[in-house]
UniProtKB/TrEMBL annotation:
InterPro entries: SNRNP25, SNRNP25_ubiquitin, Ubiquitin-like_domsf. It comes from Forsythia ovata. It comes from the Eukaryota. SUPFAM superfamilies: Ubiquitin-like. It holds the Pfam family Ubiquitin_4. This is U11/U12 small nuclear ribonucleoprotein 25 kDa protein. The lineage of its organism: Eukaryota, Viridiplantae, Streptophyta, Embryophyta, Tracheophyta.
Amino acid sequence: MDASTNSTMVEDAAGIVDVNTSPEYNASIVKKTKLHFTVEALLNDPILLDVTKNPTLSEVDTLINLELGGAMRICVLKLDGTSIDVAVMNCALVKDLKLAIKKKVKDMEETMMGHRQISCQPSLQLIPPHFQDESIRAD
């Protein structure tokens, strides 16, 4: 190999392969690979098991404060015997607790039932034929 070519050696499953690419491209691949492994390690961390799949900034802030003592975990026991664990800040209001419970219940329903799709087809069949050409207005 001469020094004028931008040639790099990359090791893959088959062995060492010569790849002719620019150094910027290789640096980008290395950064993406490091980021991927870092995110994978964070997602598998046992401390972060209570983080939701798509956390908001306030949820992350609450969980950080929970670890530092600035928030509390509340267990709500329902009448059917099930319980819901939510975390709220120490300075949270009842309104904040209600919102956290509603969000937790919504997340639990979505994970149990998956994505819900509502169909209007059965209700549209109940509209009398002389109204089908007119637009439906809200009262």
